[in-house]
Design a protein that fits this description.
Elements (H helix, E strand, L loop, with lengths): L1 H46 L3 H14 L4 H13 L4 H12 L5 H12 L3 H10 L8 H13 L3 H14 L4 H23 L1
Helix pairs in contact: 1-2, 2-3, 3-4, 4-5, 5-6, 5-7, 6-7, 7-8, 8-9
């Protein structure tokens, strides 16, 4: 009699484990499906310039899967476009989710500069180490930080270095020319007075 009972107990336990496993997979599958649905809806809303509903869809997607990089990036970008300081929190979370990558740090710095958070931008730029500091993207953000701090000479020097690294880059050339013109104008004004 105990053999039959123990066999039924093992069968019941196995069935319960299998059902639990299926339920867990179903919940994960449902969440993934909902996140994809919310991302598609947000994309449609953005195309229609309905930023309020796009924002709500992206927030739902992030609430469902806080570790979903695509949803969090889209949310941070939309918040940045609307000049919301909440964008920095999402950029910070992206840095935490991908600590080994440079791009989330640079995106955080770009957002911080755009929102006038110069201290946060400087702190994050300072935390970037090694060969990442020699990339054109890093150097350009460093120059932008110099400009935000009112140090156009420092920015001018960095843009000159950038021109050496990227001689064919039109955007860098235009920024350098504008800075040089501004520098000459300022110098000329000082000489006149």
């Amino acid at each position: 009699p105990w053999g039959r009972v123990s066999r039924w107990v093992f069968i019941g336990a196995g069935a319960a484990i299998a059902i639990s496993f299926v339920c867990i997979l179903s919940v994960r599958g449902y969440r993934s499906w909902r996140v994809e649905k919310e991302l598609r809806a947000a994309q449609v809303y953005r195309q229609q310039q309905d930023y309020k509903d796009a924002l709500l869809s992206l927030k739902r997607a992030v609430a469902l899967r806080p570790d979903n990089l695509e949803a969090r990036r889209a949310l941070a970008s939309l918040l940045e476009e609307t000049a919301s300081s909440e964008a920095l929190a999402h950029r910070r979370k992206l840095m935490d989710l991908e600590p080994q990558l440079l791009e989330p740090k640079l995106a955080y710095v770009r957002t911080a500069l755009k929102l006038g958070q110069v201290q946060q931008a400087a702190k994050t730029l300072k935390s970037i180490q090694g060969s990442h500091r020699e990339t054109p993207e890093f150097m350009e953000l460093q120059a932008e930080l110099q400009l935000k701090r009112g140090r156009s000479d420092g920015a001018l020097e960095i843009y000159r270095e950038l021109m050496d690294l990227r001689p064919g880059d039109e955007r860098t050339r235009v920024k350098l020319a504008a800075l040089e013109l501004r520098s000459q104008t300022t110098t000329g004004m000082t000489t006149i007075s």
